[in-house]
Design brief:
The chain is mostly beta strands and 70 residues long. It contains no helices and five strands. The strands form two sheets. Strands 3-1-5 form a three-stranded antiparallel beta sheet, with no helix packed on it.
Length: 70
């Protein structure tokens, strides 16, 4: 299974000063699209320019291996 950690683009954009992007994990065993939740930090107009990053996506593989101590 492949999952992804969804984070706001911290260093590469200016729209995060006005818009809060909620971080989270998406399990792609059940979903095939990325939907991200965001909300305004204050009353304002947010303009996201073409080519400006929306998200920081970190993919990872999930498995059922667990570490044990004996």
């Amino acid at each position: 299974n492949v999952s992804a950690l969804i984070l706001p683009p911290i260093y590469h954009t200016n729209y995060t000063d006005d818009l809060f992007v909620y971080p989270g994990i998406v399990d792609y065993a059940n979903f095939s699209t990325i939907n991200f939740i965001c909300s305004p930090k204050r009353k304002c107009e947010v303009i996201i320019k073409a080519g400006e990053p929306l998200l920081h996506v970190i993919p990872f593989i999930t498995n059922n291996n667990f570490a044990k101590y004996q």
